[in-house]
Every structure is written in C-alpha cells, then in structure tokens.
Amino acid sequence: MLIFIAAPLLLVLINSFYVTASKFETVETESCTPGIAGEICVTELRTRPLLDEDDKVIRQTRYVGLQSYRNVLELEKAAGFLINNDFRSILTIDFWKALRFTLTFTFITLPIMLAAGLGIALAVNMVSERFRGQIIFVSLLPLIITPVIGALSIRWLFIGDGILTAALEMILERDIAMFAQAWTVEVLILFYRVWHIVPFAFVVLYAGLQTLNRDTLESAIIDGASRWERVRYVVVPYLMPLIVFLTVIHLMDSYRVFEEIVGLGAESHVISLQWITYDYLRPDDAGNRAISRASASAMLTMVGIVFILALPLRQTWRDYHPRRK
Amino acid sequence: MIKKRALAALAAVFVGTAAHAECAFENEIEIRMLSASFPAWVGVTDAMKECGNVEAELNNEFLEKMQEGFAAFPPLYHIGGLYGTAIVPLMDANLIRPLDDLVEKYGQNLNTNQLIKVDGKTMAIAMMVNAQHLMYREDILDELGIPVPSTYVELFDAAEKIQASGKVDYVFGGNFRTAWLEFVNMYLGYGGSFFDAEWKPTINNEQGVASLETLKRLTKHMDPEFLASDTTYTAQQLQKRKIAMATLWASRAQAMDDPDESEVVGLVKPASALAPEAGMIPAATLWWDGIVIASGISDEEADAAFRVAMEGLDTEMALANPGAAIWLIKGYEPGKYADGAIATVANGARPYPASSQMGLMQSAIAGNIFDYLRGEKDAPTALADMESDYIVSAREAGFIN
Asked: Do the beta carbons of residue B168 and residue B242 sit within 8 Å?
C-alpha cells in the first residue's frame, strides 16, 4: 500500500507544486534543410539549452505553489464568463468542458448499466438450463474486447459512409454524419461503453441471483406479490450489496473515461478529464511536456473520484456499522 | 492489399536473411535502429539489414522512445530515423553527434542537400522530402472547363461550380483532425510570423484572422465530418470518388493510382499547394525525413552505424522503392508523383519552422482551433486564447518570464 499507492500519489502531488525547466540562451543560427533540387538555408533566432561541464542540460526546479492548478482550472476566466451569464463559453475552457462530459458520461451510463445488467440477469435466469451456458458465453463477448480496439472498430463502422452509418441512412432515409457534431459522438461513446460494461454487471448480478433464497420468493408468491413486486421488494434488496459494488466500480471506472476518445479520434469534439492529463503529458514534436500541469490535473481527477465515491461508500459504511439505538 | 503486403513482408524476411551479398561490406558490429514506421523506412531498414547484424525497430511512437533510448548509457539505439522537427529535442540535449567526419569518410554518394546543417555542422542526413499540396480530379476540372486553381480565392470559385455540377458529394478534403498544421501552413502563406524576438506570440493579427477565416470557408465545402478527417480518411475520400480536390501529403500521391485501393486510377493529378491569395507563397511547409546517429556510442560503433546507414540510403534502394517517397538520393529522378511537391517548392514554400517554441505553439493552436471551427469562439477570441495558452506553457518551459 505504502510503496504502490501512497508513494506515487505523494510524488504526483509534489510534482504538481513544482515546475522544472532548462536554462536557455538565444542564439542566431543558420540551418540548412533540403528543398527538392537544392537546399534552403534559413538564419533565425533559436534557443539553446545551457549545458554543464558533463554536457548535460542544466535543469532548474522551482516551487510554483498552486499556479499549475490555476492554469488547469482557469478560474478567473470561468468566473468572468459566469458573471456575464455566459455559460456556454465556460465550456470552451478545457477543464470545464472535460468535467461536463465526464460527469454526463458517468451518470448516464450508470443507471443504464444497472438496469440492463439486472434485466439480462433476470431473463437468463428464466431460460431453460440447457441454453444458459451458451447465452452467458455470448453475452460476455463484449467484455473481452480491448476498449481501444472496440473504439477503433466503432470509428470505422460509423465514420463517413461506414457500414453502420450507411445502414442507418437506408433505414431512416436521410443523410447522417455521426462525426459532424459533438452530441452524436457523445452518443457513440456512451453507447459503446454501455455495450462494453453491461456484461460485467450481468455476470455479477446473475451470480447473485443464484444464491437467492427460493423460500422467500415462494412465500412472496403465496402472499400474492406480482412479478414486479417480487423484483422490487425481494430481488433488488437482496442484490443491493452487489449493486453498490457495481456502482462503486463503475463510478471509478467511468470517471476516468479515456480509451473511447482516443480510439474514436473524438478529441476535436469531446474531451474527458483523463484525456487532458494525457494531453499535458504527451510530448509535442519538440519534446516539451507539461508535467506539472499533468500532475495537477491528475490530482484533480483523483479528488473528483473521491468526491463521487463518498456517497455510496458512506452508505455501505453505515450498513456495516449500524449506530446503536 | 493486406495479403499482398503480408507476402511482401514475408519475402523481405527471406531476402533479408539470404542476401548479405548485396551490401558492400560485412558488418561485424551490432547496430540497432529506431525509426518511424511507413513504407519508405521499411525500404531503408531492409536495405540496411543486408549488411548483417542490424536490428531495426519501426514504430510511429518513436519520438518518446528515441529521446530516452539515446539518453541511456550505453544508448539503446545507434541510429535514429525521424522527421525533421523531431531533431530539435535531440540536438538540444546533445544526444546526436555531428556527422561531418563520417560524411567525409563514407558519404561520397550523398547530395549536398541531404546534409542537414545547423551552424555549419552536419547533424542529420536527409533521405526524402514531403509536403502537403493540392491533388485534384483532372477529369472533373476538364469536363467543367475549370483551370487548376493556384490560390484559395480561385479554389472557392471552382468549388461553387463543382458543387453545382453534383459530380461529387463534397468538393474538398483535408486533414482537419490536425487542423493546427493547416493553420500553421495557411498563416505562413499569409506571410505571418509566430514569435517576436523575445519569444512572445504574435499570431493575434490580421493574418491570423484571415487564416482562420479561409480555413472555415474551406470547411463549408468539406464533408461535415471534417474534424475527424485524417490523412488516411482524406486519401480514401479521393480514391472513392467522394471529393474532387484535397490537400494531401505528396507521399500519398502514388496510392491514387493503386488499382487495389483506388477507383480513380489515372484521374488524380498533383499540383502546387494553393497560395491564400495571388502573389503570396503557397500555404504549405516542407518536411524532411532522415537519420541521426547517437552521440553516446563509441566512435567505432558510429563508424559502422554510418556505413550501414549509407547502404540503406543508396541508389539501389531508392530505385527499388521509387514510389515510396520523393527521395533525395543520387541517381533517383523524381517521377510524376513528385510534381506537386516540386511545384510547391518552386512557388516558394518554406521549411517547417521547427523549434521548441513552435512545439508549444502547435499545442496551443490545437487546443483552440476546434472550438473556432465548431463555431464556439470567434476568430479574435480563438487567437487570443492560443496566445495565452502558449504564454502559460512558454513560462513553464522558461522561454519567457
């Protein structure tokens, strides 16, 4: 715990307060690169990092306090928009745009996943035992696919006149461009995640159903409970610990939504918090990367997850530590 | 197509192990190379392998690996194969060695324009150049009696006519998933400059606004999914008769005539990149690809690495892979697929202005241009945001105070 969780977290936290940069001098440089027949020489100003005696670049680390957090959150700018009641413009600031999508994504996929998982589990539970094995196997397939590969497939199925877009166009008899606006891309991402995660919910809940006490169900039937009432008052309460478990896992998992955005190539329309961290961390062509801001954004993501998990975890805590009355 | 490639790869494996004889010398020292991954590099590394004891890793995420690999002790790679802008961080950190003495010893067959010189020192050997330029459907333009456009003003006129004719779904295609590069090209076409002498940004000006507006006007003639459109997608649109014109990399020209993947064999012609307006230079930049040698390896290793590299970049290799690139190699005559790039250079296109600051600027542009193209910011706001994002990262990196 100490080495693998606490130490890295602490390092990221420390990183977010410091910025490391090289020292530079600006020099006039002539550089020659090829044209097609001849060469093209350009004389221009260029920065050159200063080197120490060992020919290593001199690096300086300085304490910047909360500056990196400020740069990620851009609070002043957001406040400026807020004062003018310009809510749309807040969503042009990367962090707030990503937060909006991440939360939407998390809270839309959660109920769909639970409902669909429970529905399939109940349905499979009623199928004759002979076919159950096959049905379970087939419905687990989406879970096996690597998210990046799945997202890439979705991209090629839907982009331009991809097979599925063409099929939709034929059914609806209108021109469809899934990648032309943000909301359709979001729908694709949501759809893909639900498709990917429902089997997991199904398997967990199905396993839970197997241990359901038949006697309780039968007495409910004798008491005249309808099918819906049996699910509502017997099955769901019995499965509640599993549902909380699924909720917690899913909240953690979907708050760091990332693969879908990279795989779909959706960053021009939709970004998530995790994608921002990746974007800061990824070196550009000249090798620059914003480690400090990446750390700050990672810390903010963690704070967000803790915040979101607080509610279900508190509930579970209370269930297991009932107050004495 | 895939089958064909697989067969070719298989053949390469067998040829590679069997035909040491084609290399001019027997290499005794183990040489490892890391390069980007596209057909030109496959040709080069296969030719190097003929010398024996050469191990090549082709990976499009090479940038990160190369820096770490060259900085390790001893370096994990002897030779690096990269595109021009990637040389900056390696040079800044002193990870690549000057090649002048090696060029003198073994570089008799190199053209002078293959030597990438920084302050008089040869830091890399270029093997090919690439540029984005216009590709157009000759049959459509001929039929409608439209001359090949040379500026965006002419293009917009032509676009109206082509749209009206209904011959294609959309008139134009471009790699707007990397819209930052389109902006850089357009802005340079308008004659803009990115920084002042103190590395402060200078893009929030008339040229910046004009560049953004031209790009936005262009998107009106494009597939509505333009923000997700990358090079492969654009090339496919042209190959599948969906569009009449596109801005594409020269290296994609040959694929237009590949009957396995194209429906427009013989109909697509390359032309110079378009200038924003008459009298301006083309909105395009020149890129080169080439090799560098790690500074941390011993002189004997560097010697062997360079000799192996020269075998990889020889005339034989270029003649065996004529369509893979616009080679700079002696004995190679650029074919018809290079016409667009040649015209672009002749019209005054400049090399890509690679620098550490430009890397930060790219990210700042990329972070704001989509909001502009989607209509969520106006041009001056987008440019101001690009500048402020650049300033934040340039402060962190220590370029400005």
From this structure: yes
- Could you tell me the two tokens for A186? 């979001």
* Interval B188-202: pLDDT, tens: 999 999 999 899 999
Beta-bridged to residue B134, according to DSSP, are B247, B271
Of A21, A33, A49, the CB nearest to B84: A33
**Axis-axis angle for helices B39-49, B2-18 (nearest 10):** 20
DSSP code for B192: -
CB of A115 within 8 Å of a chain B CB? The answer is no
**Which chain B residues are closer than 8 Å to A36 by Cβ?**
129, 326, 328, 334, 338, 341-342, 345
Contact residues on chain B for A51, CB-CB shorter than 8 A: 94
Give strand ranges (E) for B84-231.
115-118, 121-137, 170-173
Coil, strand, or helix at residue B125?
Answer: strand
Q: Cβ–Cβ of B228/A265 closer than 8 Å?
A: yes
The domain segmentation of chain A, as residue ranges, is: 94-320
The distance of B373 to chain A (nearest Cα, Å) reads 10
Reading phi first (left if > 0) and then psi (alpha if -120 to 50, else beta), residue B119 is in left
Torsion on CA atoms A156, A157, A163, A164, rounded to nearest 10: -150
Cβ pairs bridging A and B (under 8 Å): 172
**B81 contacts B305 by C-beta, under 8 angstroms:** no
Is any Cβ of chain B less than 8 angstroms from the Cβ of A53?
no
> Sign of torsion, CA A163 A169 A172 A173?
negative
Chain B residues closer than 8 Å to A71 by CB: 392
Domain with CATH 3.40.190.10 in chain B: 2-129+286-341, 131-285+347-351
Domain B2-129+286-341 CATH superfamily? Periplasmic binding protein-like II (3.40.190.10)
Instruction: Say yes or no for a CB contact (<8 Å) between A268 and B93.
Output: no
Interchain pair A180, B224: CB under 8 A: yes
Contact A160 B225 (CB under 8 A): yes
The closest CB to that of B225, out of A22, A179, A284, belongs to A179
Question: Would you tell me how many other CB atoms lie within 10 Å of the CB of residue B339?
Answer: 17
The shortest CB-CB distance from A268 to any of B228, B377, B397 is to: B228
Question: CATH fold of A94-320, please?
Answer: MetI-like fold (1.10.3720)
Contact A94/B at CB under 8 A: yes
Mean pLDDT by 10 residues, chain A (325 residues): 89 93 88 86 88 83 92 91 87 92 95 95 86 86 88 90 89 87 93 93 93 86 87 90 92 91 90 94 86 94 91 81 66
R_g (Cα) of chain A, nearest Å:
27
Q: Which fold has domain B131-285+347-351?
A: D-Maltodextrin-Binding Protein; domain 2 (3.40.190)
Give CA separation, A233 vs A218, A237, A239, B237, in Å.
Answer: 13, 6, 11, 57
Cα–Cα distance for residue pair A177/A171, rounded to 1 Å: 14
- pLDDT digit string, tens, across residues B237-253: 999 999 999 999 998 88
Please tell me which residue of chain A has the smallest CA distance to B350: A40
With an 8 Å Cβ cutoff, are A287 and B116 in contact? no
Which A-chain residues 221-250 have CB contacts (< 8 A) with chain B? none
